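Supplementary notes for students who missed Thursday's class. We covered one full example, reproduced here. Read the sequence, then the structure, then the short commentary at the end.
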Amino acid sequence: MWHDSLIIVKAIILAFSLALTSTSAFAEDWMTTDGTKYENVKVLRVEADAVTILYKDGGALIPLFKLPPPLQQRFKYDPNKAKAAMEARAKADAQNAKELQAEMEEADKIKRQEQIKDAEAKGQTNAPTQ
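Structure (token representation):
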């Protein structure tokens, strides 16, 4: 889920950049093998396992195995290379999620410590007084 959000954010940023320099002359419509339709497709990035696109409704990362054979050929789809790339992507995503979780926990800890300091400074501590 985190990975999808990151892709959407990257796609939006790229969309604004490309809007200044691209034309719709290269846009085309795609239908994946699972029946998903993408209109006005503009390819942003091709990797061994997937293609990142902008289309009428936003951005997407589409696994190459979901593309019809002519598009797979265009992007030089190799199932073995795609499998290795997909595994590497999954591993990197898991590591990124783990690091993000650790950062969020650390930020939460710092926030709690600051709240305790603020409360103590105002004399609002729950500690027993002597």
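Commentary. The longest helix spans residues 79-121. Residues 20-24 have pLDDT under 50 and may be disordered. If anything here is unclear, bring it to office hours.
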